[in-house]
Amino acid sequence: MPQFTQEQMERYSRHILIPGFGGVGQQRLLDAKVLVLGAGGLGSPALLYLAAAGIGTIGIVDGDCVDLSNLQRQIIHRTADIGRPKALSAQETLTALNPGVRIIVHSERMTGENAAALIAPYDAVVDGTDNFPTRFLANDACFFARRPLFTAAVFRFEGQLTSFLMQGSGPCYRCLFPEPPPPGLIPTCQEAGILGSVTGVLGTLLATEVIKHFAQTGEGLEGTLLLCDLLTATFRRVRFKRNPACPLCGDAPAITRVTGHSPVCGTR
Amino acid sequence: MPTIDVTDQVCPLSFVKAKLAMEDLAIGERLEVRLRAGEALANVTRSFEMEGQRVVGREQESPEVWRVVVERQV
Ligand SMILES: [Zn+2]
After folding, report:
1. Which CATH number covers residue A187?
2. Is A1 inside any structural domain?
3. Which domain holds residue A27?
4. pLDDT tens over chain A, length 268 residues
5. Is A9's CB within 8 Å of B20's CB?
6. CA quadruple A119, A120, A123, A127: dihedral, nearest 10
7. Which residue of chain A has the CA closest to B74?
């Protein structure tokens, strides 16, 4: 049996009490290493719940600093953190929340050059950046590293969420969208108004999928896109399969290594 | 038969501690749980039963303390 301290037994008691989760599930969370890309709107709630849940090692990749306009949705930061590196600000909040988890700060942007090295020490990746270049980069890097990728996107009152386990059989993000859209078609970050609590819902769903994955309970979202319209409070599931013509995981892949794309905009 | 003492815990931690000890056992093995009379006795035995385990015996050790034997079923 996992040997829990009295502190851990109390802190995680509401997990341990869940039938089918128990101390075994909690120990799996404590053993897990998760890399979160972006300490922004999606990353904030995801990071808070992952740390609270006792994911033992959490890496935060973010090269930006906290801006006043972030605080409407990026709830891991405080007004006093404006101007400070987001990864550092997030680390402080998480350590105060749960000193028992190890938080590793990567105050940089993920690129084609550093992606493989960033991901290698971790068991899974959460993409909370919500921008096309990073989403494709994370997809490609996780595919080659065979790391599960949990990804979400938000727009105004809408969101979508899925998981790629990257264990060889399942689909990848490029099975849905082979290439990033041309820059002219991508809404710039400034155009994309967003209700803060919508990022909260999607970020919390991300954390829930990660926790289920590591606790080995329930059903994940591999091969399923969850579409949320929170203006009408509607959730819809769309199934999708691996695309044999996928340029990454297809039968005759054109992409054989990780390459970078330049981000369209620095706002998260 | 292993024994776990949860007289030092309050609900629901008494059950959390007993459940963690139960996870060590194989199906069919038994655990003796030492717990306080009253709330802990009622909650821990009921919680084990709701998880699908079988309470196979109980005896009063003192006015305050009971010993309950639970057999792992799931
Ligand atoms: Zn693919």
Report:
1. 3.40.50.720
2. no
3. 13-265
4. 568 999 999 999 999 999 989 999 999 999 999 999 999 999 999 999 999 999 999 999 999 999 999 999 999 999 999 999 999 999 999 999 999 999 999 999 999 999 999 999 999 999 999 888 999 999 999 999 999 999 999 988 999 999 999 998 779 999 999 888 777 666 665 666 899 999 999 999 999 999 999 999 999 999 999 999 999 999 999 999 999 999 999 999 999 999 875 544 444 4
5. yes
6. 10
7. A20
Inform me whether the C-beta atom of residue A2 falls under 8 Å from chain B C-beta atoms.
yes
Instruction: Report yes or no on A8 lying in a domain.
Output: no
Tokens coding A134 = 């990073």
> Per the structure, how many domains does chain A have?
1
B50 burial type by CB count under 10 A (0-12 exposed, 13-18 middle, 19+ buried): exposed
Q: How far is B55 from chain A (nearest CA, A)?
A: 17
What's domain B3-71's architecture? Answer: 2-Layer Sandwich (3.30)
Q: Which residues of A touch B51 (CB under 8 A)?
A: 19
Domain ranges for chain B: 3-71
ipTM of the prediction: 0.92
Contact status of A72 with chain B (Cβ, < 8 Å): no
Residues in chain A: 268
Tokens of A179: 């290439």
The chain B residue lying nearest A24, using CA atoms, is B23
Q: CA of B30, closest CA in chain A: separation in Å?
A: 15
